[in-house]
Amino acid sequence: MNDADFLASYDPHAYPPVAVTVDIVAFTIRNGALNVLLVRRACPPSEGMWALPGGFVGQWEDLPTAAARELAEETGVATAHRRLHLEQLGTYGTPDRDPRMRVFSVAYVAFAPDLPDPVSGSDAREAAWVPMDERPAELAFDHSTIVADGLERARSKLEYTPLATKFVGEEFTIAELRAVYETVWGESLHAGNFHRKVLSVPGFVESTNTTTERGGARGGPRAKLYRAGDARLLHPALLMPSREETVR
Amino acid sequence: MNDADFLASYDPHAYPPVAVTVDIVAFTIRNGALNVLLVRRACPPSEGMWALPGGFVGQWEDLPTAAARELAEETGVATAHRRLHLEQLGTYGTPDRDPRMRVFSVAYVAFAPDLPDPVSGSDAREAAWVPMDERPAELAFDHSTIVADGLERARSKLEYTPLATKFVGEEFTIAELRAVYETVWGESLHAGNFHRKVLSVPGFVESTNTTTERGGARGGPRAKLYRAGDARLLHPALLMPSREETVR
DNA sequence: GGAATAGTGTCTGTTAGACACTATCTC
DNA sequence: GAGATAGTGTCTAACAGACACTATTCC
């Protein structure tokens, strides 16, 4: 039998129904804290519980496209937002994770600089940026696990990629970059050493030859401004100070 | 409406049919070369083409379970093979990647020490270990992309995890471990420096206080034997010599 | 004996991290 | 002026990589 004959006789409905969704763990930094985007579910199952934004993948839709669309619907951020980074996190498919049917969720992580307050989505769900350490202990489905995995991804990607530049504006100071690391890692870093280290990694940042308009709010000189460089990997990497303890 | 009422009225068949498969990129080292497990498709679509082992996820089956089952069916390796490492690689869902219907494939990577020749699977497909540099230029579906992604995963995981110990037997010499790195990275490493480095990473290997029965085939003293240690991350990491060139 | 290999010693340049210090700015 | 911050200098311990060397074993 050739492919054409085979396809003509193939009946997709003969198999038990499954569904594929995308869920997005969107991170941003607000008021010096790492925030995650959550929505309150407006319909069953788990009506009223907080959950990750997400939804079913359209029939002709690519996975990254679906993730960008769902995120845009929740945040009002244009799909082609310039400084948005979106990457696949993993797929969650435990048989009983959704009571409706067998649902596989392809999770994405998104990183963005301080975004506006989310608009209520088209399906009228309440949406909000929630500081990570104030997030509900229990989220719908297995979303707590997905958020934890997304955080771990963010923490480790800061080490060996220029991901931190996605959390700040087009132009930024080294101190702002350091604040990103300190916020996501939850540790304070030595300002002087961090400064020298960042500048020593080829392609991490490049100078704009400009400075901030004013010094720090509580004093200090004007800081030089940088923009993201062309490196895709940091070499040498910036390792978390607490890495050694998590090795075993 | 509460969850119970909602679920009673929910019809999964109302949505367009999609399917979820698992595909496995299984790596092993044979005759000093990195091999990948491929099967020749026995039925349409792409009948006769080489492809990754894999198949549809059972209705009550977990994703890792499905991956282990598919791999076992192709290789004859017991599902609970002691020294097999299996991890999720990513999900591939381009709308037209399978002509039958919308198919999402959750890819897994498997690493194992020299495995026996695969037995033909229950569905009578021909299966074989194929050296990576002799693999067909074109595989069925988007499997060439998946293999490339799997290789990249293997290469980078060698750097910062004890993955290499999954490619060797229960007890191994430092030279065997070095051969794994050289094979996967495709670069020769300095024997003396590698030796000292491996022993200096806490928890990477632990001594068995025994040596090989004989020296090397072409001379040399008996080598000490080691087994895998309890480290989950290598600190400091073993970086690929060519890392710097791939940074941009 | 000759050749190959296991494992160690030593040296150099680079890096991480600690500490100190100066210059600049806000209040 | 007081206090905070940006950015640099310097020192030490650790590390990567190059090279050399010894000891052991196979052929």
UniProtKB/TrEMBL annotation, chains A, B:
Boundaries of every Nudix hydrolase domain copy: 17-153
Gene3D superfamilies in UniProt: Nucleoside Triphosphate Pyrophosphohydrolase, Winged helix-like DNA-binding domain superfamily/Winged helix DNA-binding domain
InterPro entries: NUDIX_hydrolase-like_dom_sf, NUDIX_hydrolase_CS, NUDIX_hydrolase_dom, WH-like_DNA-bd_sf, WH_DNA-bd_sf, WHD_NrtR
Name assigned to this protein: NUDIX domain-containing protein
Pfam families xrefs: NUDIX (PF00293), WHD_NrtR (PF21906)
Keyword field: Hydrolase
